[in-house]
Design goal:
The structure is a single chain. The chain is α/β, with parallel strands linked by helices. The protein has two domains: about 90 residues, Transcription Regulator spoIIAA (2-Layer Sandwich), CATH 3.30.750; about 230 residues, no CATH class. Helices cover about 70% and strands about 10% of the residues. It is built from twelve helices and four strands; from the N terminus they run E-E-H-E-H-E-H-H-H-H-H-H-H-H-H-H. The protein has a four-stranded mixed beta sheet with strand order 1-2-3-4. The N and C termini lie far apart (about 90 Å).
């Protein structure tokens, strides 16, 4: 056996037998390590590997030890490692095969109470993380107001193009179709009572106050929100965000603030265009289905929709934009676990944003109703 490596068998306190490894265990002693540990575990009643006496352990030796233990576990023996501390513990954990510590037998399915508790804990933990992120973002925004040059505006034009110009076709198309569907459903019912002139009122108010801002925000979430979460998540797992911090850059100002400002600018503009195309969708039904003159539809629309209605829709759009930007960036910067983590973060960002949009829409609608706006 090589000098510096000692392998012995000793009794344990619980009456069993353990293999004690002492001294230097590196890949240079690989042959002696493999033969000695394998021979010791071949003795009956040996089920513990004690490595508290190891003064030096490298990755090669840790991999060999795990290979021996894996072969023993494959035969049904319940062997374990004890005494690992410091660097040795880190290396043993690093080279441990996936699933090596999984319990034998059929896994127990968590009960309903446990699942409910886990879900509530996950929601509360997410709220805590989001609240902390909002606080950091607020501090970063105040700092940016004092030092505008610290914000990375170089990518602002590109962000506006991707979120606005590139997303406009699908936003306008969906709002046009929603307006057409709403107009068709309303026309069928209104025509029964001879209330055809009120079609413009129904379509215009519904699009401007509710459906226009909400549908636009949902589409922006699916496009830009998911993209922001994936981009920042990839940068996080690739340690690019850590590199920014090393260079003295604040990720909030450098990455988050330009994206949130982009959505605050783009979403209201897309909402206005979406409202217009939604009204055009209703116009196609008024002209094509009800044979209503265009001038009648336009005059009814002008009389029904006022600046206050448009303003409430734009206020919703601003709130939706802030929610999408903050949630997507927070989920992206909180990504852990490589490519799988990026996928989970993107999914979480979209689902959370959609839920938050509905909640905010209900809050805005209630507030506007109470204020009689």
């Amino acid at each position: 056996m090589d000098e510096g490596l000692r392998i012995t068998t000793e009794p344990t306190r619980d009456g069993g037998t353990q293999v004690c490894l002492r001294g230097v265990a590196t890949l240079a002693q690989g042959d002696a390590l493999w033969r000695g540990v394998s021979a010791a575990f071949a003795l009956p009643g040996v089920d513990v590997l004690e490595i508290s006496g190891v003064t030096r352990l490298d990755g090669g030796a840790a991999a060999l030890l795990h290979a021996i233990l894996s072969r023993l576990r494959a035969t049904g023996r319940a062997v374990e490692v004890r005494g690992a501390a410091g660097e040795a513990a880190q290396l043993m954990a690093l080279y441990a095969p996936r699933g090596a510590a999984a319990p034998r037998g059929r896994a127990r399915h968590p009960g309903l109470v446990q699942e409910l508790g886990d879900a509530v804990y996950a929601v509360l933990d997410g709220l805590r993380a989001t609240a902390g992120f909002v606080g950091d973002f607020t501090v970063a925004t105040l700092g940016a107001l004092r030092r505008p040059a610290s914000v990375h505006f170089g990518q602002f034009a590109s962000l506006v193009e991707r979120a606005g110009a590139d997303g406009a076709p699908i936003v306008l198309l969906i709002n046009f179709l929603v307006g057409g569907i709403l107009g068709l459903q309303g026309a069928i019912q209104l025509h029964r009572f001879g209330a055809d002139p009120f079609l413009a009122d129904m379509v215009g108010l519904s699009m401007v106050r509710e459906l226009g801002p909400l549908m636009t925000a949902i589409l922006v979430t699916g496009r830009s929100g998911a993209a922001y979460a994936a981009e920042l998540g990839t940068m996080t797992v690739n340690e690019e965000v850590d590199a920014l911090r090393t260079l003295g850059q604040d990720p909030q100002r450098f990455l988050v603030l330009p994206r949130v400002l982009t959505l605050l600018l783009v979403v209201p503009l897309l909402t206005l265009l979406g409202d217009l195309f939604g009204a055009l969708g209703g116009w196609t039904i008024a002209v094509g289905y009800l044979a209503q003159p265009t001038v009648v539809y336009v005059q009814a629309l002008e009389g029904a929709v006022g600046l206050g209605d448009i303003g409430t829709g734009l206020l919703k759009a601003v709130g939706f934009a802030a929610a999408i930007g903050v949630v997507s960036c927070q989920r992206g910067l909180a990504t852990r676990g490589g490519a799988d983590g990026v996928g989970r973060a993107t999914t979480s960002a979209v689902v959370t944003s959609l839920f938050l949009l509905v909640v905010l829409d209900a809050i805005f609608t209630w507030a506007f109703t109470m204020l009689d706006w």
